[in-house]
Amino acid sequence: MLDIFRTLIANQYEAALCTLNACVDKCPQAAWNGPVVNLKFCQVAFHTLFYADYYLGVTEEPFRQQEFHREHAGVFRDYEELEPHAPVHLYEKAWIQVYVEFCRQKAVSVARSETAESLAAPAGFPRKPFTRAELHMYNIRHIQHHSAQLSMRLRLDSQIDVPWFRSGWNRSVKDEG
Description:
Four Helix Bundle (Hemerythrin (Met), subunit A), 8 helices
């Protein structure tokens, strides 16, 4: 049963991130810094990836020390996403695409390394008083929530449809319906 759960979580992380990736890929340059609720498109994409990355960890401290973060210190800057104010930084599409791939690889690796004990343990984040297993579900739902916002903006503003991805990673943005 544990192997089934690990595969399920890895596949659903990939499908959720594939949806986000399709939104990023399909976003016209003119809409990249356009409004999505109270943020800009690029900020919503970054926020989504930032917290996917964050909650794939076990606590906050190792998060900041990841090699990927050190290599991209200029992008992560002051970790404004963790501050109690609206983000101000803007992000390039090419970099967001790199971050999608990093998060995808991390999600698969983390999901496949979980044990029954780690999944039953506390999430490790003070504001998330549930198990690590539920944290994975929460994280996937968060990715889908913001992907839906981005998808809606693309459809309403640019008449661009984003396909549904059932399971796993599919680099193609062809309709999977």
